[in-house]
């Protein structure tokens, strides 16, 4: 049994690490093939790599690639911290309290389908194109998925567990703290991961509107100047940062709720 278990674990590790590497290699092969046939539509990987190195040392709009990446990351993290604080609390509220769900639920269901980008004209008219509107737009994009996953996790808690808690004399606050929230943690973390990807999507749109710093501004600059290599450098940087944040969140989830492993 131990040999079978070790063999299964080895196969699992091979697939876990091998398949992503294989996927990246296939993308690179397809990229090289397409850029060789249509160089006017897609720059070669070595050209993008050279542009990567250049943007690290030569500033664009007085800022290097690291500075642009930090500007985007700063906006996303600030919006995420606020969204996580209020989104988790609001999700717990409407998931646990029937009166709150009846009052806020219908309002939230009306607002939920509206994409964050649709708020851009209103935000610009109200707040202009400074730093706060960009963070606000990212907050809107990250708040909604967090509330949805948190409230769903709270509502899906087995009622038998809640009933057992009441039998042992637990009040509503104790049951919420000791039974409901720990059970809903995997769903809450799913919302956190979704909010991170949504935040990166939204910050791109926010920075493409008048930002002097940020990866979205680099995308706009590359698009307006027909510089596809710069666009790809920005997109790849976003993908790398997003992947690193995802790995960090997965490690944190294993620490906070190891029973979900």
* Euclidean distance between termini CA atoms: 21 Å
* Poorly predicted sequence stretches spanning 5 or more consecutive residues: none
Radius of gyration: 23 Å
CATH superfamily of the largest domain: MetI-like
The helix tally amounts to 10
Give the overall pLDDT as a whole number. Answer: 84
| Whole-number total of structural domains | 2
Strand content: under 5%
Principal-axis shape equals flat
Total number of beta strands: 0
Structural class: mainly alpha
What is the CATH class name of the largest domain?
Answer: Mainly Alpha
Q: What is the helical fraction, as a range of percent?
A: over 70%
* CATH architecture classification of the largest domain: Orthogonal Bundle
Q: Provide the succession of SSEs.
A: HHHHHHHHHH
Summarize the biggest pleated sheet.
none
Structural description of this entry:
With 261 residues, the chain is an all-alpha fold. It has helices at 2-37, 45-57, 65-96, 98-111, 120-127, 131-155, 159-167, 172-207, 215-224, 228-256. The protein has two domains: 1-42; 43-260, MetI-like (MetI-like fold). Helices cover 81% and strands 0% of the residues. Helix 8 (172-207) runs parallel beside helix 9 (215-224) and helix 9 packs antiparallel against helix 10. The radius of gyration is 23 Å and the shape is flat. The mean pLDDT is 84.
């Amino acid at each position: 049994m131990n040999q079978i278990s070790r063999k299964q674990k080895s196969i699992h590790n091979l697939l876990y690490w091998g398949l992503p590497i294989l996927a990246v290699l296939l993308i690179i092969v397809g990229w090289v093939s397409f850029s060789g046939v249509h160089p006017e539509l897609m720059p070669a990987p070595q050209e993008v790599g050279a542009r990567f190195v250049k943007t690290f040392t030569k500033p664009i709009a007085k800022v290097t690639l690291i500075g642009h990446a930090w500007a985007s990351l700063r906006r996303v993290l600030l919006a995420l911290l606020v969204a996580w604080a209020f989104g988790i609390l609001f999700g717990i509220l409407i998931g646990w309290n029937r009166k709150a769900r009846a009052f806020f639920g219908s309002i939230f269901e009306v607002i939920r389908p509206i994409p964050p980008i649709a708020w851009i004209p209103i935000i610009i008219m109200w707040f202009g194109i400074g730093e706060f509107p960009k963070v606000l737009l990212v907050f809107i994009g990250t708040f909604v998925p967090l509330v949805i996953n948190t409230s769903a996790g709270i509502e899906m808690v087995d009622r038998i567990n809640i009933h057992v808690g009441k039998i042992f004399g637990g009040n509503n606050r104790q049951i919420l703290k000791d039974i409901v929230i720990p059970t809903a943690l995997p769903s809450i973390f799913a919302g956190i991961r979704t909010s991170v990807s949504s935040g990166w999507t939204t910050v791109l749109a926010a920075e493409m509107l008048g930002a002097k710093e940020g990866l979205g501004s680099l995308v706009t600059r590359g698009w307006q100047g027909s510089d596809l290599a710069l666009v790809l450098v920005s997109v790849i940087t976003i993908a790398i940062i997003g992947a690193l944040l995802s790995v960090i969140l997965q490690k944190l989830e294993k620490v906070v709720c190891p029973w979900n492993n």
